[in-house]
Amino acid sequence: MEQPTTHQRIINTAGKLFYTNGYASTGINEIISKCGIAKATLYSHFKSKEDICIAYLNNRHDTFLDTLRGYVDRRKMGKNQMLAIFDYLSDLFREGDFYGCWALRTLGELSPKQKRIFSTIQKQKKELLLFLGEVVDNNIVNGSKAEIEKISGGLYLLYDSAITESHLFQNAWPIYMAKSLAPKLFGNAEIKS
Hints:
The chain is mainly alpha-helical. The protein contains nine helices and no strands.
């Protein structure tokens, strides 16, 4: 297996520390030590801890969306595709080392001055919401824009709640509860099969 570049190793190492210990609790010196690199090497790749965090968030988000897309595509059309996000979340939870949503964990630690990280997280959450809108649109027959937005927005809120609460309780019941509530969002919509 190919070794990651120094740049990617910094992102991976810092990302693991941010996710497990928290953004605020992780210092530059700890990242340097865990990477086994010199301070000058780190700063030749990233100008600041904030830049490392943004790279981590982007890396994590891109991987998440790519994997989720594949997860949805492998499901049968209809309800199964619209609920696939909860199955994916359940698998993430079972993998262990689950600390909830990496973006929301970081968001909870931000000061008002950290607008770049805030904007990055906001953009990524919008991308997830748009992706869910595409999934719903592809699986509802002649759905109106309002109906698609209502269903995809509801799925998004149930997902974000489930990922946070499953971490809080260290249990998968919030994921199963969210998945069982989600079909109520579909109402009388005609679902493809």
